[in-house]
Amino acid sequence: MDLPLELVAYVAIGFAAQVVDGALGMAYGVTASTLLLGLGIPPAVSSATVHAAECFTTGASALSHRAFGNIDRHLFRRLLLPGMAGAGVGAYLLVQLPGEALRPWVAGYLLLLGVVILLKGFRQIAPQYVRTHLLPLGFFGGLVDAIGGGGWGPVVNSTLLARGNDARFTIGTVNAVEFFVTLTASLVFLLTLGVSHWQVVAALAVGGVLAAPLGGLLVRRLKPKWLLVAVGLLVIALSARTLAHHFS
Q1: Cα–Cα distance measured from residue 54 to residue 146, given in angstroms and rounded to the nearest whole number
Q2: Which tens digit of pLDDT belongs to each residue from 199-210?
Q3: Span 109-125, mean pLDDT?
Q4: Among 199, 204, 176, which residue's Cα sits nearest to residue 30?
Q5: 163/248 Cα distance (integer angstroms)
Q6: Above 60 in pLDDT, residue 211?
Q7: Total domains in the fold of the chain
Q8: What is the pTM of this model?
Q9: pLDDT of the residue at 31
Q10: Buried b (16+ CB within 10 A) or exposed e, 122-134
Q11: What is the structure's pLDDT at 14?
Q12: Does residue 84 carry a pLDDT above 90?
């Protein structure tokens, strides 16, 4: 039996979004949430749907990055618990309170980080391993991710890369932690809202799972310079779009 064209489109969107997310450490949640909001789905339900799909895609992505040796265990442990705590709090707040007011502030912060990352991409600098202030960063990233339906990668990856951390291991590790952040938010949404739109969840998840190995391979093969340039441009574009939408 032929699949409805709409579901095929969701699979394709999930695939494309996960390739970018796996290689650059961001954009799956933002892309999917933007799509669902554009269809008129309320923010809380949109975030719940995206996080349900991401339970599958981030799990596949984490396994791919582990298989390709892209994970820094120390960084993983330092981000894990605060990220999960932030996601739980953010999911609960989104159900109880409107989260729209936070978006322009986060977008402005990310826009500045995107510029910093882009400039670093054109400089010859040795990778650093800055591991201070990881607990508040993980908590804030998880909080923003749950409230906005996406944001863990842009906030955490952008901050660490702007501080000079190695691109490959930062992106691989932050993607691996994202599975647990997403799972925490999804459990809170499930207990408070339930999850509807299961066909959309399944289609996004199928596309993302199929693309996960490709993202893990790309982040290993691409040169750090081009990873930084690509991440910087993506962060700037997404942040500018959010600000333009808000102020329009």
Answers
A1: 12
A2: 878 888 888 888
A3: 72
A4: 204
A5: 32
A6: yes
A7: 1
A8: 0.74
A9: 66
A10: eeeeeeeeeeeeb
A11: 80
A12: yes
Q: How far is CA 26 from CA 125, 158, 159, in A?
A: 23, 9, 12
- Decide if 148 contacts 185 (C-beta within 8 A): no
Render 203-238 in DSSP notation, one character per residue: HHHHHHHHHHHHHHHHHHHS-HHHHHHHHHHHHHHH
**Interior angle at CA 185, CA 180 and CA 189, nearest 5:** 145
At 166 the three-state DSSP class reads coil
State the Cα–Cα distance between residues 238 and 173, nearest whole angstrom. Answer: 22
- Quote the pLDDT of residue 1: 41
Please give the average per-residue pLDDT across 76-87, as a whole number. Answer: 94
Q: Which residues contact 220 (CB under 8 A, 6 or more apart)?
A: 68, 69, 70, 168
Structure token digits, residue 51: 């996080």
Burial of 39 (0-12, 13-18, 19+ CB in 10 A): exposed
Give the model's pLDDT for residue 184: 92
Q: Would you say 70 and 218 are in contact if contact means Cβ atoms under 8 Å apart? A: no
DSSP classification of residue 101: G
* Residue 134 or residue 2, greater confidence: 134
Burial of 105 (0-12, 13-18, 19+ CB in 10 A): exposed
Q: Which domain holds residue 176?
A: 5-247
CA–CA distance, 24 with 42 (Å, rounded to integer): 28
* Both structure tokens of 242: 């959010």
**What's residue 149's pLDDT?**
64
CA end-to-end span of the chain, whole Å? 44
